[in-house]
Amino acid sequence: MSLTAKLLLGMLLCCFPLQVLAWDWHTKVTLSLKDQPLLVACQLLEKKYGIHFSYSRDVVDLSHRITLEVRNKPLKKVLELLFEPYDIASSRIGNQVVLTMKNKPLRTISGYVEDARNGEKLIGATVYCPAQRAGTVTNQYGFYSITLKKDTSSLYASYIGYTPQRYKLPATGNRQIAMALQPTNSLQEIVVTENMKAHLQEQTQMSKVNIPVTEIEAVPRLLGEADVMRTLQSLPGVTGGADGSGGMSVRGGSPDQNLILLDGTPVFNSEHVFGIFSVFNPDIIKNADLYKGAFPARYGGRLSSIIDVSMKDGDMKNYHGEVSISTIAAKFMIEGPLWKNKTSFVLSGRRSYIDLLMDDAVKNVMDLGDKGDFFAFFYDANARINHIFSPKDRLYLSAYGGEDALVIAQDHDYETTDAPDQRRYQEKSSFKLGWGNLTGTLRWNHVFNQRLFSNVTFNYSQYFFLTHYHYNFRSYTIDEHSELYGRYTSRIQNAVGKIDFDYRPRPGHAIKFGVASTTHIFKPGTFFFEDNSATPSLPDTSYNNFNTVGVDMVLYGEDDWQLTPDLHLNAGLHAAGFLVEKRFYRSVQPRLGLRYLLPKGWALKTAYTHMYQPIHLLTNNGTNLPTDLWVPSTPKVKPMLSKQFTIGVAKTTEDHQYEFSLEGYYKTMNNVIEYTEYASAFSSAGKKWDDQVIIGKGRSYGTEVLLEKKQGRTKGWLGYTLAWSDRQFAEVNEGKRYPYKYDARHNLELTVIHQFNKTWEISAGWQFSTGKPLTLPVASYEGIQEPSPYDPQQPVPPRADELGERNQFRTSNIHRLDLSVTYTKKKRLWTKSWNLSLYNAYNQKNPFYYYVKSDPVAKERYLAQKTILPILPSISYSVKF
């Protein structure tokens, strides 16, 4: 070797650290880390001691944080301290340390999480293993399954409002472990640590809101009644109809595009008393979930939202009950064991007494006569039985029935004294309006093994609507009488059979799949008219008495999978077919959701949803009565379709005090329908109803912001929505897009609940919405005067209005403040509660409807409005035992 070569080799050896050639497992290492990722530890060892690490980023996760302080420890020991807690194995190959994951045997723990007092299953409870940073949540039936490494020693269970509980696991084997949680007795809810509850940013699901029953009961009440649907309308993206009218629109959709489920059974009309109350008695509700978008593949059949309400199971251990009376209704609920720890029941009922409160006032205003009558009420009743056959088998049987009725009867005796035509006669008339729901559910839960759970369901539901009209006129002095009778009815029935599976192969991986079949029986309208007068003007008439049957078939699968610590995927497919009138419609609906964790605890979420709806609702825009008719798709009217894309960010603070979400969405809708200009519910209920509708498309888009305070003495939420919604029909508005009737540009909702102590609680809710679209006449003209058919001496000019573009005007802004105070006193054997609520506290005159009014003196016409819900105080009293 030349002298030059020797000098170059010497210089290279001086520049290269000797440790690279000299390190071994006994090399003394000094290392100081404070809450640093494992990757930083590897970088320090490489820089200081020349130790190179080799690993696959897809297999080995070096983001785990560690705090470690060592001085002059052997390298082998230091690597064990760094990697052993995370099951990372280290080995030397050449001059590199190769990192791999240890292959440890797995085992599965499963069971139910329940309330320790009464055995009630807890939906959405968290089961977590801190040592392995793995967790899961219970499904809709309170069942959980988690697969862990066999050296796991304990699990934690937690649920909002309950004390977290640690459960020590047996050393080996797969086990079923029932976890019973005790409600916290402290004023403030327990602060759940990061290791025991998933943050909002860690959940893949977006556009979903869970409403605890405690919040439903705490928000201000209308006429003393708490209501889940009114609570949902205080959330961003959800709007209701005018004060005193029904209908709920979600992200610019129509009310029929909301799938409302009670124990998995569809409810076709969820409203009492023209939308003031819903059919859901809060005393029997256990859980309520609202999906506004990013629908999981297991749901289908509607375009805009899913409202999934679950009833209580019933106390398995003791008897409990509640009796309550409010300004408008009285109700009760009782639950307890039929066979302790085996069979439970829960029963509830509610009945209004509107007629008792308003009878005299209505008679005076409407002049019903001495023998006239006013009768109005609603009732609903729920029942459920829950039986445990074995740790693997449970049976549930539940039912609901409810009805609204309004009867107005007039009865007058008249006598004329003008000679020579002195006459006596009697005039009677009665009008009856009614509607109601009936549902029944039979459900069987079966646990095949620790990882596979199934639910078999059979349910039935029906909705009916009816009107009766009877008019009778009879003269006592001459042979003259007239009698008219009319009846209109409408009905839809559903029978469903389905089986759902829930498979949990490993932590961070949940698979759901199932199949269902639904038979729809449509009886959209039967009209009967009869004239029994002395000289009948029309023959007896009965028509539209027919049924249409449609069969809906569904197959779905969805996979919720944590691909990496930062990336979570929910992918699914919902395949459906609808058979009606020898026509078969097919639909394949992909569902996709992604969640990616960003720095500083933020999450980026996005979702794409394709939805399909084979049934339609014919809506009469000219009335606030529930005269809407459910009809199937036909060869002329295809199923409605929608595509929705959603993107947003979400975050929960480290102390779980606050949650924040921001979402933007864009939704298109095809095959939406609307009555032609002169059609109505009564004229188009026959077999050819599809000749009296027009078919078009719609779209909606907007942004929603929700800030929630979840814990502490003061809780509540602030929501804001900026949204657009429009429709387009070739036959309407010259084919141009126009604002949909539920289009409201700005919506703001603020709800605050403050608990002073265990006795006193106050709440307030303020809502603001910009005006809704309205079509108004822009001009009117009068023609040549013609004789009046009623009085030839008084000719009247015909008048016609020229309407402007569809929905180009806006009503005035709508806003309202509601207040509530609750006093609760707990006794040894029972608890009493007083609630005082103030609806529309500053008496804002929000419109119920608008009409054009003429001023004959000024010869002007102007827009006037009617308000039916002014400031309304209410009080309720309840006793729980």
UniProtKB/TrEMBL annotation:
Protein name in the entry: Outer membrane receptor proteins, mostly Fe transport
One GO cellular component term: cell outer membrane
One GO BP: siderophore transmembrane transport
Secretin/TonB short N-terminal domain ranges (all copies): 51-102
Organism superkingdom: Bacteria
Location of the protein in the cell: Cell outer membrane
PANTHER family per the UniProt record, alphabetical: HEMOGLOBIN AND HEMOGLOBIN-HAPTOGLOBIN-BINDING PROTEIN 1-RELATED, TONB-DEPENDENT OUTER MEMBRANE RECEPTOR
Residues making up the signal peptide according to the UniProt record: 1-22
Protein's organism: Chitinophaga rupis
GO molecular function terms listed in the Swiss-Prot or TrEMBL record: siderophore uptake transmembrane transporter activity
